[in-house]
Amino acid sequence: MRTLVECVPNFSEGRDAEKISRIVDAARAVHGVTIFDLHSDASHNRSVLTFVGAPDAVGEAAIRLVGEAARLIDMNAHRGEHPRIGSTDVVPFVPVEGVTMEDCVRIAHAAGEEIFRRFAIPVYFYEAAALRPNRRLLENIRRGQYEGLREAVLTDPSRLPDVCSSTGGPQLHLTAGATAVGARRFLVAFNVNLNTNDAAIAKMIARKIRTSGGGLPALKAIGVLLHYDATGGSPEQGSAPARAETRAQVAMNLTDFEQTSMLVAYQAVEREAAQLGISIHSSELVGLAPQAAFGGAPPEQLKLANFSSRMIFEQRLDAVLAAGL
What is the pTM of this model? Predict the structure, then answer.
């Protein structure tokens, strides 16, 4: 029986193309791994990589990627709109074919131990791999982000990583911070851009529609401000375009698209924005999504920018399998 696992590491570099390429190549070099997608965002200063392969190969590729990111990214100098705790922020493993969630938990635990053994980067386990109930939710681990967590671990035993030194003190890696490693179902990262540069509006909408605010089920959301050049692309680090533009964004994670689809999430943002006299500019899918996650809506209805059929997970998987993964 064929066994396939998906891994979607998020690392804290979205501006330097050379660094991004080197980090991705660290995973690509592992035999048996196929890169499905790479999404980089300069405003978030973050990249999301998707790769699929046999369990052992995927685990090794994730470990190597974390090591390369640690060599290239200094969190003390990192700035970006997206919450993060380390050079590699999260490493989730997702069952695809012939594997169970329990298998992915074992992969996550083994990878976390090896990340610390090789690179001395402390690890937190989250979602199905969590060792403590309050760490199932990633936002609990990320509270305070890198800067806050770096200080909290020195004085608060409840913030200590799950894998860390027993002799060298309760500190994060001096430049790479910490990494959260988990096992979970498919997660859809879906962002809606508003026709306003008022980040407070995006934050207000995010609070109203997310699960924790009494909104939609299985939905996490934050409001951020993005920076674009005049053609709509994100500027490279250090290059302030003469006609720079800003746009507020509601950035969302759909943790169970069967409960809340992209269509339902989009309509919720559209509804709340309309009550404030704001329209939708566009939306974006970060990485891949199963066909069912669209909720039956065509990409045009969601105003998806830069969309292609390769972003539908089943179509991408079929194409890769046909080519001999």
Answer: 0.92
